[in-house]
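User: Can you predict the 3D structure for this chain?
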Amino acid sequence: MLTGPAAGYASTPAAYPVTPFRMEYGAGFLEGSITWYARSIHTAGSVKAASAKKTAVFQGESPHCISSVEPRTASVGDTRDFAVDIPCDAPGGITIAYVELWDFDNSHLHRAICTRNGCTIRD
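Assistant: Here is the predicted structure, written as structure tokens:
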């Protein structure tokens, strides 16, 4: 009985946990998913700015590392796709990911605190 990939073969992307997230503010939103790898995370999705510029901010941490902040901004009336890779070259990799939505005037709108098991949205 096989319980994992055969020796010498790479795991498929489906073998890694994926955590979805979605935050809304007016007609704007931030949505996507985080794929959890052994020593990094990959965050992909889109941010939409309806009536004012919106910025999505990403950061990851673990007991062994804290990543830099990675912002992605959508201009008024625009939807911007993003793909952000956050490495942590330590055992266990990233254990917590922070996904935040900010308004044009640097007002904090929403924050998701995510793990491999899901996200909790906080205002």
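Residues 1-10 have pLDDT under 50 and may be disordered. Residues 16-122 form a domain with the Immunoglobulin-like fold (CATH 2.60.40).
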